[in-house]
Design brief:
- The chain has 383 residues and is mostly beta strands.
- It is built from 3 helices and 27 strands.
- The longest helix has 20 residues, at 2-21.
- A hairpin with a 5-residue loop joins strand 25 (348-355) and strand 26.
- 11% of the residues lie in helices and 48% in strands.
- It has 3 domains: 2-110, no CATH class; 151-285; 289-372, no CATH class.
- Strands 1-2-3-4 form a 4-stranded antiparallel β-sheet.
Length: 383
């Protein structure tokens, strides 16, 4: 019975592929493609269709039924599919669509495709509880496995990614994936545990909060990102931290390293000495300040999340509401164009991205994930 059913399904898919591959582009289909895409974009941006201009319509044969914009966890018929790439202009932005056989896929604005969202997908039965680090576009398309066997990761503004990999019950490796690289990370160090890791602004050095062995105190370790890593450097000693409090975060500023010890106790290292910082605003706090006059407000209001721009005078410019959503955390992109909001909706893990300029809401993730963050690298290319 199962064999017969499988054969029927395969035959159906094959006939469907042949039909699509042989489909000649009918007269008027270009206009139809533009019409359906304009209607969808008008709904997304809450504007009139008359405000949406056609930038370009290009015939394209897609490699499969995803139309070059696959979503993670979805299966697509693998057959050549003739259609169009459609670029529309609205509100000084350009938006990407792909269409074929009366269907369309949305890729978001071209501005949104300058960054992507990375997250850890758990791997079943992995003995060290590692997962795969996967990226998608902010619109939730074009998944790509960046690294395999990852516990935690720390995106850098350069596009590079520092990550940890559990190697045993009592050890981790610190890894580095250069900007634009995929897989094959460099191993930088090994330790009993890592708390946080950063790269220098010039992209040449790294620093991490490290507990070298069980029973030892936390220390600061540093190294270079370029050149081979010698085995003797993997477990080298580190620099003592300013207090015995639990270290939490590490930041690399233009003047040097800043460490957060305990709750909001900040220390800057100048030479070989730590100095207390009475006033310090970490990057995640500064990121919510869009400019000298405005800040971004993302707040839980009952069963919904509300996003707005707030002027220093107290005036509020509403951007978007995400209904039936419980927020865990949010992150503003380094360029202040988008904010990623992670949480849960109707019992399902979900992440959405809101365009801070237009208020557009992008469905980024709707499946189990760990630690989703915006990364400064474009998503995988369409096929």
């Amino acid at each position: 019975m199962r064999s017969a059913l499988t054969s029927f399904v395969l035959t159906f898919l094959m006939l469907n592929c042949l039909t699509l591959a042989a489909l000649a582009v009918p007269a008027g289909s270009r206009a139809d493609a533009v019409k359906v895409c304009r209607a969808d974009l008008a709904r997304r941006l809450n504007v009139s269709e008359t405000e949406i201009l056609v930038d370009r319509v290009t015939p394209r044969v897609f490699a499969d039924a995803s139309l070059g914009l696959p979503r993670p966890g979805s299966l697509y018929v693998e057959c050549e599919t003739p259609g169009f790439l459609v670029l529309l202009k609205a509100r000084r932005d350009t938006y990407l669509y792909a269409t074929a056989a009366g269907k369309f896929a949305y890729g978001g604005s071209l501005a949104s495709r300058q960054d992507s969202v990375a997250y850890v997908v758990p791997v079943e039965h992995d003995p060290n509880l590692n997962g795969n680090l996967v990226s998608v576009s902010l619109a939730g398309t074009n998944p790509c496995v960046l690294m395999r066997g990852v516990t935690d990761f720390y995106p850098q503004t350069s596009g590079g990614i520092l990550a940890t990999r559990r190697t045993s019950r009592s050890g981790f490796d610190l890894l580095y994936l250069p900007p634009h690289a995929v897989d094959h990370p460099v191993t930088l160090a090994g330790a009993f545990s890592f708390q946080d890791a950063v790269a220098s602004p010039d992209g040449k050095h790294w620093a991490a909060l490290v507990r070298p062995m069980i029973g030892l105190v936390w220390v600061l370790r540093e190294g270079t990102l370029s050149g081979p890593v010698h085995a003797s450097d993997l477990f080298s000693s580190g620099v003592a931290l300013p207090t015995s409090e639990q270290p939490r975060h590490l930041y690399w500023t233009a003047s040097g390293l800043v460490v957060e010890m305990g709750v909001h106790h900040y220390y800057e290292r100048l030479g070989n000495t730590w100095h207390t910082l009475g006033q310090y605003m970490p990057p995640y706090t500064l990121s919510a300040m869009l400019n000298r006059s405005e800040s971004l407000d993302v707040s839980q209001e009952g069963t919904a999340v509300r996003v707005s721009r707030r002027w220093f005078t107290g005036e509020d410019r509403f951007l978007a509401t995400i209904p039936e959503f419980t927020m865990r955390h949010s992150q503003v992109a380094p360029n202040h164009r988008h904010v990623l909001i992670c949480g849960e909706s109707k019992g399902v893990e979900r992440a959405v991205t809101v365009d801070i300029l237009t208020g557009e809401v992008l469905d980024t993730l709707d499946r189990p994930y760990r630690d989703a963050q915006i990364v400064s690298r474009p998503p995988a290319k369409s096929r």
